[in-house]
Design goal:
The complex is a heterodimer. Chain A is mainly alpha-helical. Chain A contains eleven helices and two strands. Chain A is globular and about 70 Å long. Chain B contains eleven helices and no strands. Classes of the chains: A mainly alpha, B mainly alpha. At the A-B interface, helix 7 and helix 11 of A face helix 4, helix 6 and helix 7 of B. Chain B: Keywords: Membrane, Transmembrane, Transmembrane helix.
Chain lengths: ~260, ~260
């Protein structure tokens, strides 16, 4: 089992999987050395990377010996148990919820301001749809509060359906243009990129002056587009097609910006 | 090479023919269409409505290509697919043209009505239903109707085009309404009528120029009457756009004389 080390991060992940397979089925590593090396490095990793919400802590790159593991043989079948950092069975509920909230916050930071988020695109491989759901619901509630009384239900349902259908259509569009992007990951990023629009809607709920609303909505629209573009430039689209993938996103975010401006 | 070359070419053709006969799953409309020798090869992905890779052949476009096609569709000339699209229509342009039109109609109509309300200083309700109206009207006319027209030609046995061509023609034809609805921001009632029906005439002429050759290729002369239905529906569409989205200055109070009173 031989492999070449390749430099780019995406391929490094695949290579880590190879490593994984390697240790699982073919080679016979020394369990003692692994368990010695394991706990110290994993604890230091936890301190450095703020808990197991970080996917590199969960997904288990064995080859780099970040986690301890035990191997046993039962009737000729070799099994392996891994220690993923901590036991989640008997921890308090608050801890579980806080871990999920932390993970949502980390992704939000990563999407909205990549330099602050650590420039770590691996974080987004571990997509979730909780953050987008929360953002979408909050946006719908705020816009329906802002709307006239008899139209608030209509606004609410319209915003929810626009967010879901629109992000699905934008994702399918970029896949059809030949972008290499996972479907749900793109949904996740588009949902998180709605957060500036949410900010604009909160501002316009508090400030009713038209001269504040319009610049704020336009700036937040530009921020949303910029945030989602940052992600979609990693999808390896052809240079001549980038605009074709970006244009629908501009439309998608502009509907909401316009709804905030006009109300 | 000269004599042997001819023999090889013959054999290749035979193999290709047999291959086409056996592969009953290839998408026939694009296969049989191919009006030019230089047209891109038909999709070799087997037809399946759930296979995303199959539709990628209709999204194989560049930015400049799409912009050029949208621009050329505003000039009503025959042979749009053969000349401007090299025989291979895309679906990116039509779909996003329609979506842009929906957004532009929504933006302009809400802007017009809120300016009217602001000048009349009546704090009335917002115009959110206009968005769902625009979505249903434009998508029905731009996506549903061409499919119906294509189905009718298939049923009548004209079958010289695929459903993608019908969708593409209608989608690109609607593109002319985008600048027109922006121009309709000018609050002069008569100018809006002129603009909308000028656009309707231009895009209708474009549609007739491109659909009529398909209908005229049929043996039965009666199928040509279908073009009358296309023209009538296009006129109805223009009327619907005018009444639904730009009616504020004709039915409601005109925004210009309003502050005077």
């Amino acid at each position: 089992m031989s492999y070449d080390r390749v430099g780019t991060p995406s391929q490094q992940l695949i290579q880590a999987d190879d490593d994984d397979l390697d240790t699982l089925s073919f080679s016979h590593p020394n369990p003692a050395s692994n368990s010695n090396a394991g706990p110290s490095s994993s604890s230091s990793q936890q301190q450095a990377q703020a808990g197991p919400s970080n996917p590199s802590g969960v997904s288990g790159r064995i080859g780099q010996s970040s986690q301890p593991r035990r191997e046993r043989g039962w009737g000729g079948v070799r099994t392996e148990t891994r220690y993923t950092g901590e036991s989640t069975l008997d921890e308090p509920v608050t801890k579980t919820i806080m871990r999920d909230l932390n993970s949502i916050y980390a992704k939000l930071l990563q999407v909205l301001y990549p330099p602050k988020g650590g420039g770590n695109n691996q974080l987004l491989r571990d997509w979730d749809l909780w953050g987008p759901l929360v953002i979408c619901l909050t946006l719908a509630i705020i816009l329906s509060l802002d709307a006239p009384q008899e139209q608030s239900m209509q606004v609410f349902s319209l915003v929810i359906s626009l967010v879901t259908i629109g992000s699905v259509v934008v994702t399918i569009n970029s896949k059809l243009l030949g972008g290499k992007v996972s479907f749900f990951q793109s949904l996740c990023v588009l949902g998180y990129a709605l957060a500036p629009i949410l900010l604009a809607s909160i501002v316009s709920l508090l400030v009713h002056t038209l001269f504040v609303r319009i610049p704020v909505s336009l700036a937040c629209w530009a921020w949303s587009v910029w945030a989602s573009m940052n992600f979609f430039t990693g999808t390896r689209l052809q240079e001549s097609r980038t605009f074709l993938a970006v244009y629908p996103m501009c439309l998608f975010f502009f509907v909401f910006a316009w709804m905030i401006m006009i109300q | 090479m000269s004599q042997g070359g001819y023999a090889v070419v013959d054999v290749d053709d035979e193999i290709n023919d047999q291959g086409n006969g056996l592969e009953f799953k290839t998408f026939l409309p694009t296969d049989s269409h191919a009006p030019r020798a230089t047209s891109p090869s038909p999709p070799d992905v087997p037809y399946s409505p759930f296979n995303l890779a199959y539709y990628q052949t209709y999204f194989d476009v560049d930015t400049n290509t799409v912009l050029k096609r949208v621009g050329m569709a505003m000039i009503p000339r025959p042979g749009f697919i053969a000349e401007n699209c090299d025989g291979q229509i895309d679906l990116y342009g039509p779909f996003w043209t329609l979506t842009t039109l929906i957004l532009v109609l929504y933006i302009t109509s809400t802007l017009i009505s809120s300016i009217t309300q602001y000048l009349a200083s009546s704090h009335a309700s917002s115009n959110l239903p206009l968005l769902s109206t625009a979505v249903s009207v434009i998508y029905f006319y731009g996506l549903g109707l061409p499919a119906l027209v294509w189905g009718a030609t298939k049923w009548l046995g004209v079958g010289e085009w695929g459903v993608a061509e019908a969708l593409g023609l209608y989608g690109y034809a609607m593109g002319v309404y985008i600048p027109i609805s922006l121009l309709c921001l000018i609050p002069v009632g008569i100018l809006r009528w002129v603009l909308v029906f000028g656009g309707a005439a231009s895009s209708g002429y474009f549609l007739v120029q491109n659909i009529y050759p398909v209908l005229a290729s049929a043996d039965n002369k009666m199928t040509r009457l279908l073009i009358i239905a296309v023209i009538a529906l296009h006129g109805g569409m223009a009327l619907a756009i005018k009444v639904l989205f730009f009616s504020n200055s004709t039915i409601g109070p005109d925004p210009i004389p309003d502050p005077m009173s």
